[in-house]
Amino acid sequence: MAVTVDVDPERLVVRLSGADRFWALTAGVAVPTEAVTSVRPVSRAEAYRRGSGFRLPGAYWPGLIMAGRYVSRSTGRSFWCVHRADEVLLVELAGQTYDRLVLEVDEPAEVSRAIARARFR
């Protein structure tokens, strides 16, 4: 896995490495922690149902990878970096470039708790 999430009370930093940097066309995303409105692990199927939208730019190969920027009428702009995980991390944001981050991380529940502790302390 090439996605790491660093959390502190001020910022949430998503870093991509390896081929994910190439597929997503970025090294990562940084947002203020106060912009997080909700965070939780969800199934990959639920994340797709909530709206992935159109790729602007990024990579998509069904069942293999979804990475980069996407836009949808229902959910706005989102940043995805998901491969084949059954469970992904969904971070909803307010007032930022992205309205949601959908990330495949090693332990989505643990990362979710860390973000919630930093944001909603």
C-alpha-based Rg, rounded: 13 Å
Summed up, the domain count is 1
Low-confidence runs of at least 5 consecutive residues: none
Q: Indicate the percent of residues in helices.
A: 10-25%
Total strands: the figure is: 9
Number of helical elements: 3
Mean pLDDT: 91
Beta-strand content estimate: over 45%
Shape call: globular
Strand order of the largest sheet: 4-8-9-7-6-5
> Which secondary-structure class do the elements indicate?
alpha+beta
**Biggest beta-sheet profile:** 6 strands, mixed
In whole angstroms, the N-to-C terminal distance is 29 Å
What are the secondary-structure elements, in order, as H or E?
A: EEHEEHEEEEEH
Keywords:
globular, single chain, alpha+beta, Bacterial Pleckstrin homology domain-containing protein, 121 residues
Please outline what is shown here.
With 121 residues, this protein is an alpha+beta fold.
List the topology elements.
Layout lengths: L2 E5 L3 E6 L2 H6 L3 E5 L3 E8 H6 L4 E8 L3 E8 L3 E7 L4 E7 L6 E4 L4 H12 L2
Parallel strand pairs: 7-9
Antiparallel strand pairs: 1-2, 2-3, 4-8, 5-6, 6-7, 8-9
